[in-house]
Amino acid sequence: MSDRTPLIVGNWKMHRDHLEAIQLLQRVAYHLTEEDTDGQTVVVCPPFTALRSLQTLIASDRLPIGLGAQDCHPDAEGAHTGDVSVPMLARLDVGHVIVGHSERRLHHAEDDALVARKARAAVAAGLTPIVCVGEGEAARESGRAEEVVLAQVRGSLADVEPADPAGLVIAYEPVWAIGTGRTATPDDAQQMAAAIRGTVAERYGAATAEGVRLLYGGSVKPANIRSLMALADVDGVLVGGASLSAEDFALIIGHGRAV
Ligand code: PEP
What we know:
Blueprint: E1 7-11, H1 18-31, E2 41-45, H2 51-61, E3 66-69, H3 86-90, E4 94-99, H4 102-107, H5 112-124, E5 128-133, H6 137-141, H7 145-156, E6 169-172, H8 186-204, H9 206-211, E7 213-217, H10 225-229, E8 236-239, H11 246-258
Parallel strand pairs: 1-2, 1-8, 2-3, 3-4, 4-5, 5-6, 6-7, 7-8
Bound molecules: phosphoenolpyruvate.
């Protein structure tokens, strides 16, 4: 059993306007028991437009749920139309920020160097970056999954120096498992997580690597959460589709903790 605090993150992607987001978070909270969030961290990442509303809801109802963002710009301010900076997120009590999600790598041509700049900006502002990595189907089928993922880990952490290991999270999300209903087998997820932790150890030393949390993402559901959370090197999950159902997300949180 490690000392790492389990982390369950819901990525709402481009779903729910701010009124719907309030409703969804209230329903998630309604379905949670006090024990469900005891000893683990739960974070939701709504679209930017809902952050302020959820900040207010979380604070006023003292919900045991943290706020995360789905992306950020590496600069603190500037002529970057459409972007949002980390200091702006910090002002909204956002504690985590996803960087390098495969949808951003694919649709916005984000490379490891840009992901590393975003992760550095997050760390500098005291936020925890959730650095996403994952191989595509072709790499998995040709036996190059580990090579591809570990190269992404090295590139996406370039010059990233977290003050403490708990301030860095890496999410392994095989691209072929995102939104497809297909999940990596527990053996494959554990093997990759262990390889990532090994690479983190090469980069920061064994003690830091022991404290960095590794998440699995890709079609996580109430039915598969237990087998994933039971893995030695998987410390939590990044949940897309299932986090849009209050009932399913609450079940994932509850089942994950029970392991
Ligand atoms: C994700 O978008 O990070 C994700 C894992 O999505 P899903 O759970 O829907 O596969």
